[in-house]
Specification:
- By secondary structure, the chain is α/β, with parallel strands linked by helices.
- The chain is built from 12 helices and 9 strands.
- It starts with a strand and ends in a 9-residue tail after the last helix.
Amino acid sequence: MPIVGGLDLHRKQVTFDVVDTATGVCERGRIAPADRESFRFWLAGFEGQPVDLAVEGCTGWRFVVEECQAAGVHAHLAEPADVAGLKGRRQHAKTDRFDARHLRELLEAGNLPECWIPPQHVLEVRAKVRLYKDLLEERGGWQQRIHATLFHLGAPAQPDLLGPDPDRLVRLAALSPATRQTTVVALRMIDCLDRELITLRAEIVAFGRRQPGCLALQNEYGIGALTSVVIWSEMGDARRFANSRNAVRHTGLDISVYSSDGKRSRGHLTPARAADVALGGCLKLVASPRRRTSPYHAYYEQVARRVGKQRAALSVARKLARRCHHRLRALGDDAFAPVA
């Protein structure tokens, strides 16, 4: 690696720390504004030279990695949490220059904790999956607003809120003129979100019915065309995990226990990145351990008697995550084959 560098991303600028290992010359500075054109112009200065650049896997990494790949620069995507852990105890103020230098030093020493860089078609599908999740959450938020409005005015409870006749909510006598308007707006927003969700769901399901990795995941109980795409896009290349336990930890479903000198805290879920919330939630949803037809029902009942139903459901979801890991790993390169 003759030229090694680290990049610290922000919305307004990209701070860089680059060193030529052959001559020892170090260059530091900022690229502003932080967009494709400015970054592409900066990369042009390394044309024809072997360059390795490290960037954290935070918001903005996609355009940086794509421009590096187009320019023939070897990009390394670092795991933010692991990079922060390698900084040790802070002896000075945190600055952008220090973060860029830290990435460069880790890369130069061969200690950079790297992430998997998904292919272009995986990134596109992942963006659709996360959009679908965001729309679902927003739809649920509007439903909760309606429930809260009705309860605040003392209206009768509505278990089937969006049933055959949702307009009945507007006609409830307990509503005041302002809260009636609130309910009308909420129903309109839900209708709009439903239309977007139907279109987006159809696209995701159509992809899941053709992609080899998604089809392999659908052999597991409870995983359909939609949920297989969620697991496929968020779990990524299973070969990067040394074992299935690491794959479970990636989902955020692993249980952490602190134990020291006879003291032991209660187990809790490992903190998951926002990107992995969809993956862990999907696995918990499709496990369906309470159904007697589920192959995990006997295991669920056994664990539930010992530690409770909630932790038993998590155990089933972790078991399903391991099985998904093995299925994707067995397919190799075909697991992420693009489809038309």
